[in-house]
Amino acid sequence: MLNIIEISGTDAKTFINAQSTIKVSTGNNYCAFLSPKSEIKALTYLIKADDSKIFLILKDEATTEKLKSHLEKFIILEDVELNLVSETNFTEQDPELSKQIPEDLNFEDYSETDSLVKLHQNGMHKIFDKYFPEEKGCFPGQEVLSKYINIGLKKRAERAQEYTEEARDIFTQAEDKSEWVKAKELLNKAISEDPKNEEAYETLGVILGREENYKEAIEVMKKLDGVNPTSIMAKTNLSIFYMRLGDKETAEEYKAKATVAQFDEALKK
C-alpha cells in the first residue's frame, strides 16, 4: 500500500521547490527532504499534477506522517495545504495520474541519522543522481551538499587518480605477477573513491584478464560500460573475455557494439 501526501494551494509549487532537493517541473522525479545538516527527513517520489497540486509518494506510513509534520512547520503565510491521501482515493481521484507511479518504485533504506553525504560515502554512489540530479540552491541541507560536491568529491577524485597512476606504474613495471596484487588493491581503492574513474576500471580489467580471471574482468568492464556507454575499450575487452570463456554469441554481440562505437567516434572527428 502506497503512502501519499497531497500538497495543494496556489503556493504549492513554490513551497516544495524551497523544501526539496529537486526543481518541481512538468516531469516526475525522486526527491529528498533534508535537515539543514543534510540528514534525511524522507525520500519520496514526486508527481506534479499542476502548479497548485503535487503528490509525494513515500515508503511507509510512519515516515509519511513525520514528513507531513515536518513540512507543516514551514507553512507561515503561504497558501499551502497538506493532506494524507490513501492509495485508493488517489487512484479514484485521477486514474491517469496514478499510472505515473513507476512499477519499480524503490527507496533506499536509511536511518534517522543518515544524510545524503553519508550514504554516498558508504558506497551508494548513485544517490546524488537519483535524489539530487542537479545542483539546486535554496533548500535545507543544500550548503552541506554543495560543499561535499565541490570540495569533498573533488578531493576524492584527485586521490583516486593518484591511486590509479600508482597502480598503473606497479603493473607496467612489475617483474612478477605477485606484484599485481598491490596494483589491484590500489585500483579498487580508486574506484571506491571515484566510481567514475574510467582509467581505474580499464587497468583493473586488463590485469584481471592477464590473470585469466575472465569472470571478474567481465564484471569490471560492464561497470566501465555503465559509467561510459560509449567506451570502445569496454566493449572490445568484453568481446575478448567472453570469447575466452567460450561464449561466442555474447562475444560477437560486444564486438558488433565496439564496431558501432568506433564508427560513432570517427564521425565526431
Folded structure, characterized:
By secondary structure, the chain is α+β, with helices and mostly antiparallel strands. It folds into two domains: 3-140, Alpha-Beta Plaits (2-Layer Sandwich), CATH 3.30.70.1400; 157-268, Alpha Horseshoe (Serine Threonine Protein Phosphatase 5, Tetratricopeptide repeat), CATH 1.25.40. The protein has helices at 12-19, 61-72, 87-93, 95-98, 116-121, 127-131, 142-173, 180-193, 198-210, 214-227, 232-244, 248-268, and strands at 3-8, 29-34, 40-50, 53-58, 81-86. A five-stranded antiparallel β-sheet has the order 2-3-4-1-5. β2 and β3 form a beta hairpin. α7 packs antiparallel against α8 and α9 (198-210) packs antiparallel against α10 (214-227). The longest helix has 32 residues, at 142-173. It is elongated and about 70 Å long. The chain starts with a strand and ends with a helix. The mean pLDDT is 90.
